[in-house]
Structure formats: structure tokens, C-alpha cells
Amino acid sequence: MIGKLNHVAIAVADLEKATASYRDTLGAAVTAPMDLPEHGVTTVFIELPNTKIELLQPLGEDSPIARFLEKNPAGGMHHVCYEVEDIEAAKIKLLADGARVLGDIKIGAHNKPVLFLHPKDFCGTLVELEQI
Known about the structure:
This protein has helices at residues 15-25, 64-71, 87-96; strands spanning 5-11, 29-30, 34-36, 41-47, 52-58, 76-84, 101-107, 113-117, 127-131. The chain is α+β, with helices and mostly antiparallel strands. It has a single domain (5-131), classed as 2,3-Dihydroxybiphenyl 1,2-Dioxygenase, domain 1 (Roll), CATH 3.10.180.
């Protein structure tokens, strides 16, 4: 069902500082910041030859990233994102197999449908699926 790794997301308290580390210190290409109010984050993507790194900063007090940073003040890996061809079919199969889908399918940062899967069902890792 899953395809290639789309990105690894890292929660950060200071998006500008984190962006500078990747851009200035590591020489990576970094996208402009983008606010995603529906997801409660401001995000940038670090473009790598084989995948992307997404840096997430809370956008508002109700952001799930704000809650993550309360528990992990230094930041850290938040989720991994895998590509799927048909997100509706993936959701149906996952639910039938007993996986916990978190919320509804939403439009993600790449303007494509995404959904999240409970970390307790995937080795302690929050998983995002993105339709390609």
C-alpha cells in the first residue's frame, strides 16, 4: 500500500533558527514558510535529492505541535509521511485491519489529501499518508 517516503517532520520551537541551520550550515534548499491554519502549524520544507524534511512550528495555542513541544522542549521528530496512490482505499483497508485513523482526510502542505495514523499502531511513530 505505501509508496516512497515523502518526508520526515521535525517539530521546532524557532522556525527561523531551524531553517537557518539547514540552509546556512548544511547548504540545503529551503522553501518559504507557509501557514497551515487547519493543521495549526507554520511549515517549511528542506528539499533533499531523495526526500524532504519538514520543519513544523506551532501556529496558535491549540496547535498539536505546541503540545508536542511542551513534552519535548528541544523539539524532535514528529512524524514520517509515506505516499499512497488512493488515500480513501488506504483508509478503508487500515480501518478494516484495526488501525486507528486520527481525524478525517484533510488537505496537507502539498495541497494533496493526507491522513494521520495513531503512533501506538506503528511502533510509536505518528504516520502521515499523502495521496500522490
